[in-house]
Each structure stands twice: as structure tokens, then as C-alpha cells.
Write a structure and sequence with these properties.
The protein is built from seven helices and three strands. With about 250 residues, it is mainly alpha-helical. It has one domain. Strands 2-1-3 form a three-stranded antiparallel sheet.
Length: about 250
């Protein structure tokens, strides 16, 4: 088989990856926007009430005497738990779709069997593939904990300094943006891994023993060093190599 067909098949997968990233980004944007609006509205309301009731002078040591503050923290945690669960559901559904659709694409391009092993799908979506021992859902919850902490700290700092509502809102918006961009990076990186894992599983199942890496034009020097190299499929570098990497495997036939 000429390189034309393997190049074409790999390009189809790269296009599908870009589409999956767009889908994830749009769904994440909607979820974060809704949570942001609900949390920020309540935080600004409580902030205004506490400042007005205390004539604009609030000691941090006195903050914990306000029942409204504890209610606010509880509501923030509830809302961030909902956001985290929505994020996990979005990721899991899209990862499964990408894994399956990727194998269908390969089957169609190479005229191979299109049978899907759904046990493999579940295993691939939930596997731990990085050395820190965490999977993508662990990272989702860790980021929500960090966001909760940043929101609390921003509120306390604003109360202690008497910062105005507009300044607090800007700070809280920045806190949310950090979390949102973390979610985008996680989405791009993990969906790239799922697609590449699906590719390797399919290639191995159908007897393809060698691959090379189709290097994305925007990737780093480390990725560029792999350009043109042929690897035994069992020794191929795990992709993605770095966050936001969109390099992919290409069959060598």
C-alpha cells in the first residue's frame, strides 16, 4: 500500500481529533459559564451584605462568625461538585465516542473488520497512562478543589482589604478562567491520548507491527525529533508526549 493511503487515513484521524476538541471546548464553555454566573452572583451578594452590615470594615478573624459565610462556602462546594460531575460526564461520553469512531475510520480506510470490543473501550477510557498515577477524572476533581480554594481566598482578601465589588468580580472571573483553561488543556490532551490508544489497539489487533509518528506542525522539538522514525508498535512512544500535543500514529505497511 502506498504512503498516500496511510497519509490520508492519518489525516482523517487528525481532522476527527480537531472536531472532538471543538465539541469538548463548546460543552465545557457552556458548563463553566453557567456555574460562573451562579457562584459569582451569590458571592457578590454575600460580600455586599457583609460589607454593608459592618460599615465596610470586616476583620478576617470575625468572618467565621457569619452564618452567611458558611452557607456560601457550602453552596460553592455544591455548585463545583455539579460542575465537576458534568465535566466528567462530558469527557467520558466524548472519549468513548472518539475511541469507537476512530476504529471505524481505520477499518473503513484499510478495509478491515469493524468489530468493536467494548471492554477495551472502557479500559482505555479509564486507564492511568501517566507516571503520577492519576487518571483524567482525578485531575478534574483536583482542579475543582483548587478553584474552590482560590474563590475562598479571593473573597477573604477582598473583605479584608475592603476591595470594591467590581474588583472582586474581576478577581473571581480570573479564578474561573484559570480553571476553565485547565479543563481545556485536559480535554485536548486526554482526547488525543484516547484516539492514539484506539489507533494502537486497532493496529495491533489487525496485525500491523510498525508505526511512525505523524508530527503536528505546531508541536515541540521533542516531537519533531520523532519525525520519520519507524517504531515497533510495542515500543512506540506513548502519545501525546506533552499537554496539547496532537501528534498521531501512522501505520507502516
Amino acid at each position: 500500500m502506498s504512503n498516500y493511503w496511510t497519509d490520508r487515513e492519518a489525516r482523517e484521524r487528525k481532522y476527527a481529533l480537531d472536531r472532538a476538541i471543538d465539541i469538548l471546548n463548546e460543552e465545557l464553555r457552556r458548563c463553566y459559564q453557567l456555574s460562573y454566573e451562579r457562584i459569582i452572583a451569590e458571592m457578590l451578594r454575600i460580600y455586599t451584605e457583609i460589607m454593608e452590615d459592618n460599615e465596610g470594615k470586616v476583620l478576617v478573624s470575625h468572618l467565621y462568625q457569619f452564618n452567611r459565610y458558611y452557607e456560601l462556602l457550602n453552596n460553592i462546594n455544591k455548585e463545583l461538585t455539579k460542575l465537576g460531575q458534568k465535566e466528567i460526564n462530558i469527557f467520558e461520553n466524548e472519549f468513548k465516542r472518539v475511541y469507537i469512531q476512530n476504529q471505524v475510520t481505520i477499518s473503513s480506510s484499510f478495509n478491515l473488520s469493524s468489530e468493536i470490543n467494548y471492554t477495551e473501550v472502557e479500559r482505555a477510557v479509564n486507564e492511568i497512562w501517566l507516571n503520577d498515577g492519576k487518571n483524567w477524572s482525578d485531575r478534574v476533581w483536583a482542579d475543582k478543589e483548587k478553584l474552590s480554594q482560590r474563590l475562598r481566598e479571593s473573597l477573604i482578601d477582598s473583605l479584608a482589604t475592603g476591595s470594591g465589588v467590581s474588583n472582586l468580580e474581576k478577581t473571581l472571573m480570573n479564578d474561573f478562567n484559570v480553571s476553565y483553561h485547565n479543563a481545556q488543556t485536559l480535554a485536548r490532551t486526554e482526547v488525543a491520548h484516547i484516539q492514539n490508544k484506539s489507533t494502537l489497539d486497532k493496529f495491533q489487533k489487525d496485525g500491523i507491527t510498525k508505526v511512525k509518528i505523524l508530527v503536528d506542525k505546531n508541536c515541540c522539538e521533542e516531537c519533531t525529533e520523532n519525525k520519520g522514525k519507524v517504531f515497533d508498535i510495542i515500543n512506540a512512544p506513548v502519545l501525546p508526549i506533552h499537554p496539547n500535543c496532537k501528534c498521531c500514529y501512522q501505520a507502516v505497511l
